Amino acid sequence: MYTLIELQKKLLPDMLSVMQKRFQILRSIHFMEPVGRRTLAQVLGFSERVLRSEVEFLNEQKLITIKTNGMSVSEQGLSVLEGLSGMMREISGINEMEEKLKELLNLQEVVIVPGDSDETPWVKQELGRACAKRMKKRLVGKNTIAVAGGSTMAAVADMISADFIGDSDTVFVPARGGIGEDVKNEANSVCAKMAENTGAKHRVLYVPDQVSKEVYQSFIKEPIIKEVLHLIKNADMVLHGIGDANVMAKRRNTKEEDMKLITNGHAVGEAFGYYFNEAGQVVHKVPTVGLQLQDLQKIKHVIAVAGGSSKAKAIKACMKSATKSTVLITDEGAATKMIGY
């Protein structure tokens, strides 16, 4: 038996394409509001003429409001977005892609959000929102959540609010030290933002991400650092992003001899200071203070968040070393490339 969506695809394909286009426009207005028509046309890649007619239709249906400072989605429009979201995932084939990617990567769950964060900046917010939703489902009783740094983790922090932790007793800890990038994206800052947004507690780990073996041994003897490291390694949940190997190596100001190992090893992805080639093999490891790859084996919930078609190889490579309990949250752009559509 055909589902209703399958029947509509066969008999009314034009109607479905129009619905998808209007849903995309409405969703984009919601994430960018208030937004002008010209800006929206540029983001979506539509001509202003095409967008004008669609905007007029949405306005006539009272799904948006138009003011001098731009367009916004009305309450009725929000209801339509919420009501159609599940159907649009089925129409676009995202549900099927999730199952294929879960099987391909041998993971507990794969969540795909529509769009490509390389092309549309607000898709990263959707990745953050999807992560927050999965986190909330897994919070029971007392929880320690270890969080890595990065712009994607910062987007997750922006998407969680006071109702996130509910009755649970939650503390956020940085998964590792800083790497000298933008301070607001370092793990300590992301943890502080999550704690601030939820009313939870957090701990800090003010040590460099990369240290020599001698300095590392000195650090871990300090009582405060030792206590935080114990919390990190015994976390109930870990949140982390995935980086492009070359981008991360340059950001770390990697030494020339180490850069050769990364380049000659054909590394494509990075997570927790480990550089992976396409086969998922570790070709270089940065000495870091904090969570190590082997620590993930005993952590109940691991959520990896990364998107953008440019990161497809990096995500696929890093996920080959992931635990079966890992949940991957990615976007349509990366998922399409990983599956090979």
Automatic annotation (TrEMBL):
Family as reported in the entry's similarity comment: Belongs to the SorC transcriptional regulatory family.
Signal sequence region: none
Record's keyword annotation contains Nucleus: no
Record flagged with keyword DNA-binding: yes
Protein name: Uncharacterized protein
Molecular function GO terms recorded: carbohydrate binding; DNA binding
Entry keyword set: DNA-binding, Transcription, Transcription regulation
